[in-house]
């Protein structure tokens, strides 16, 4: 099976390393070959640890040249229009090429359109890495295919959860944010985390996939944690409660906003950069928790999709 990787930052490098390591132990992965890696700098043909482009070309041209069986997209999200990944997905899926992605933007903006192309051409899209990285949120639902989900609720952004957790412990917003940056939990420009955008993108994907809806990022209101101050945290703490940025959807409401939780709420205990997801369907309520970010976690999410694809389970 021939792979074309889009993006070769921390996640791309972690994916390549993980694939090499696991291929030595698991026969199912031994016929996988990375045939090319493309970034904004150009296309590198073949599989080398250090990226050195062989030519300047576009992603669409790279698809024609490499002719992969699977495209693995680990590039940064572009929430304006999802490009160049959206066009790459359309071209690939239209030609029966499978997609595995950790890039949230294309599915947050064009979920239904891309799924319809994939279905019409017999191609598959794996996207576990877009929500909770390697913690099986998306793929959990794949093993419960006939249970109708009517409620989704979770903490889906590790950066904001870390900041709120540290504020609960006495730090100011700025102190907690600076610490998150120092530890690598927050980007230098953390706007998309702080304003709820990142959590909203993940919720959009979950709602479309698990609740069979057809919504786009921007179809519902979302609010982040930027207005929360230390006085508010202290008051809530004195009541034995915590404030968390909650992504929520049911048959009537879809939103992301800060919520005050009591100690009876299972999400009360999700602290630091950990994420959690509560799924209610007609059969049962399921709660999963685990790391929602980090290069190795995202890479593992993509690798699990690859294995499921090989097994015919995607």
CA distance, first residue to last residue? 16 Å
Report the biggest beta sheet as strand number plus sense, adding barrel if it closes.
6 strands, mixed
Following the backbone from N to C, one meets helices and strands in this order, namely: EHEEHEHEHEHEHHHHHEEEEH
How large, in whole angstroms, is the Cα Rg?
20 Å
CATH superfamily of the largest domain: NAD(P)-binding Rossmann-like Domain
Q: What is the CATH level 1 assignment of the largest domain?
A: Alpha Beta
In total, how many domains does the architecture comprise? 2
- CATH-scheme architecture of the largest domain: 3-Layer(aba) Sandwich
Helix content: 25-40%
Measured by DSSP, the beta-strand proportion falls in: 15-25%
Q: Compute the average pLDDT.
A: 95
Q: Can you offer a commentary on this structure?
A:
The chain has helices at 10-23, 59-66, 85-94, 104-121, 138-142, 158-168, 173-182, 191-194, 197-210, 230-238, 295-310, and strands spanning 2-6, 33-39, 42-45, 70-73, 98-101, 125-126, 149-155, 242-250, 254-261, 274-281, 285-291. With 314 residues, it is α/β, with parallel strands linked by helices. The protein has two domains: 2-133 and 295-310, 3-Layer(aba) Sandwich (Rossmann fold), CATH 3.40.50.720; 149-291, Dihydrodipicolinate Reductase, domain 2, CATH 3.30.360.10. The radius of gyration is 20 Å and the shape is globular. The model has no long low-confidence stretch (mean pLDDT 95).
């Amino acid at each position: 099976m021939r792979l074309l990787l889009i993006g070769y930052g921390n996640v791309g490098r972690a994916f390549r390393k993980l694939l090499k390591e696991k291929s030595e132990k698991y026969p199912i992965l031994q016929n996988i070959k990375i045939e090319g890696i493309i970034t904004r700098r150009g296309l590198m043909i073949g599989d080398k640890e250090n990226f050195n482009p062989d030519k300047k070309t576009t992603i669409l041209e790279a698809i024609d040249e490499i002719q992969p069986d699977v495209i693995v997209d680990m590039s940064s999200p572009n929430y304006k229009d999802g490009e160049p990944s959206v066009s790459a997905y359309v071209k690939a899926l239209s030609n029966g090429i499978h997609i595995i992605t950790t890039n949230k933007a294309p599915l947050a903006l064009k979920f239904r359109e891309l799924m319809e192309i994939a279905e019409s051409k017999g191609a598959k899209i794996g996207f576990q890495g877009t929500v909770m990285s390697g913690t099986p949120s998306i793929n959990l639902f794949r093993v419960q295919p006939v249970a109708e989900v009517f409620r989704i609720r979770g903490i889906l952004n590790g950066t904001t959860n870390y900041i709120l957790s540290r504020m609960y412990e006495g730090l100011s917003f700025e102190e907690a944010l600076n610490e998150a940056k120092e530890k690598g939990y927050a980007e230098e420009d953390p706007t998309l985390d702080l304003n709820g955008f990142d959590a909203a993108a993940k919720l959009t994907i979950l709602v479309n996939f698990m609740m069979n809806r057809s919504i786009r990022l921007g179809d519902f209101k979302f609010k982040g944690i930027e207005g929360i101050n230390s006085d508010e945290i202290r008051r809530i703490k004195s009541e034995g409660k915590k404030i968390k940025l909650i992504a929520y959807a049911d048959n009537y409401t879809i939103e992301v906003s800060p919520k005050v939780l009591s100690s009876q709420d299972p999400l009360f205990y999700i602290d630091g950069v950990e994420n959690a997801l509560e799924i209610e369907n007609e059969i049962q309520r399921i709660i999963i928790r685990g790391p929602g970010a980090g290069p190795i976690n995202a890479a593992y999410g993509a690798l699990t999709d690859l294995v499921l694809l090989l097994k015919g389970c995607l």
